[in-house]
Amino acid sequence: MDSSGTAGTFTNAADYGNRLFVFEVVGLRQNGTSDSLNYPIRRSGSVFITVPYQRMNQEMRRISRLGGQIVSIKPLNGGVPLQVTTTKESQPQTKQESKSMTQAKAKHADVPVNLYRPNKPFIGKCLENYSLVGEGGIGIVQHLTFDLSGGDLHYLEGQSIGIIPPGTDDKGKPHKIRLYSIASTRHGDKLDDKTVSLCVRQLEYKHPESGETVYGVCSTYLCGLEVGSDIAITGPVGKEMLLPSDEDGNIIMMATGTGIAPFRAYLWRMFKEQHEDYKFKGFAWLIFGVPTTPNILYKEELEKLAAEFPDNFRLTYAISREQQNSEGGRMYIQHRVGEHADELWELMQNPKTHTYICGLKGMEGGIDEALSSAAGKHDINWSDYQKQMKKQERWHVETY
Questions:
Q1: Contacts with 129 (C-beta within 8 Å, 6 or more apart), sequence order
Q2: Catalytic site positions
Q3: Which architecture, in CATH terms, is 250-399?
Q4: CATH number, domain 122-237
Q5: Which of 14, 192, 220, 291 sits between 20 and 30 A of 140, alpha carbons compared?
């Protein structure tokens, strides 16, 4: 692609219709003019701007007036980069752009799945079971670690395992398995490749007819499990929430409650583990929604990581019963996303940015609404953009 800091026109413009394209721009400076155009400048000096095809020439002229230089233009959903003919002497043609990490990676061929099934589960042992909720917090949430030695149960960050609770249901049949997101890295909390950990909340609700308090079968079993007890485990399963292998990617994480589980695994692998085959050098941002401060699961460890790696890890809380949103109501995760929507949107323009959502299903609508507003400032339909991210395997959701 030929490029310079001046405006240009497209030489292969046919058949692009309403597609979206990503401009990578350098040379802009954060000032009043760029602020008014919603161009937040990254530490690297690069800006990623999503532009509808119909506005590309207009956007190029605007970037030129701001002193910026377009170094690449890529279709949002992958494909051959566009070439630009400039009005000044052309720079040498750049090398063909490499595929994004999601396009280039293998199609999960080496991801372990269903190594152990319900008819022949792995029998592990409980090594630890301790509370994650501080004094004055709401509900019961436990961190459990199971011994996997003696078998071949291995897994990757972002996967889940199944737990088969003992006993039978009210019809006399064995209980069905329940799936739980894994909260440890592939090497386990003890870094010996022989354990797996879960973050489990005891399910508790009022029966709609009787009004009696009902407790979840499997979650109650796990929260009360004694150290040394045997446990039947299946799996692992899941390919939706896998952590990309790129060490310089951007990882946006939005969690509520025990939705923190896979993100604990990510963050421990990125920053705490420092394993020889993975040295994270990118940027990670966790937005974590909880009802009260004592309900911030893994609080001490998360805040320690944020303090130790301020350039690579950002931690943002939404504490609903203690903080207020801009309208004076409770602060939920969607309100935090709304406050930072422009920054999040700008991060998402980078093809190496992955966004993950894990937790209560109700959080999705508010997050979509907040990001729709940010996308709308660039005349882009958020729903369309989200679909493109899904095609690129950069938008990952696991809610319940």
A1: 142, 143, 144, 145, 222, 223, 225, 226, 227
A2: 180-181, 358, 398, 400
A3: 3-Layer(aba) Sandwich (3.40)
A4: 2.40.30.10
A5: 192
